[in-house]
Write a structure and sequence with these properties.
globular; 7-stranded parallel sheet; alpha/beta
Length: about 180
């Protein structure tokens, strides 16, 4: 099947519901036969994500900069762990290795990855589908701001339309499936 990159938080101080969401996402990817591409970490939602995928028999590919390996947060159980020299090269390699992108709740790092993928799509550097999982309205304020950006011509409607929004990981994967080879 496809290699699907999931962006999410790596914080160690999250509520259990976010960790459960990540584990559910990894398991659903695996059940559908997809390979999980992640940021290569073993903590927070990222750790729960890869654990969920492996528990359901999935294959995981982690992409992590050496500086995070040095902090001992690398997912050493990955089927394939790719170590990069920087965060920028990490994002480039994640884009290259993935057929689609799914974004779970997260903070600055998650948004950085989402916006990198989204920006390169608006520039026609790739045509890979992207879905934002807006569980419990987590991303509603961001989506409202993006709509305002579109209303004021800072973002073209066609650019906004490149990002699909789903309420759950299963719904997100349902939306991605028709676009996968």
């Amino acid at each position: 099947m496809a290699a699907i990159c999931v962006f999410c938080a790596s914080s160690r101080t999250l509520d259990q519901r976010w960790l459960d969401l990540a584990a559910e996402t990894g398991a659903e990817l695996a059940r559908r036969g997809h390979t999980l591409v992640s940021g290569g970490g073993c903590v927070g939602m990222m750790g729960a994500l890869v654990d969920g995928a492996r528990a359901a028999g999935g294959t995981t590919v982690g992409v992590i900069p050496q500086s995070l390996v040095d902090l001992e947060v690398a997912d050493l159980a990955s089927d394939e762990l790719l170590v990069t020299d920087s965060m920028a090269s990490r994002k480039t390699l994640m884009i290259e290795r993935s057929d689609a992108f799914l974004t779970l709740p997260g903070g600055l790092g998650t948004l950085d990855e989402l916006f990198e993928v989204w920006t390169t799509a608006t520039l026609a550097m790739h045509t890979k589908p992207m879905v934002l999982v807006d569980t419990d309205g987590f991303y509603r304020p961001l989506l409202d701001w993006l709509a305002a950006c579109t209303d004021q011509n800072f973002l073209k409607p066609a650019g906004l339309d490149l990002l699909t929004v789903a309420p759950t990981p299963a719904a997100a994967l349902d939306l991605l499936t028709p676009h996968l080879v």
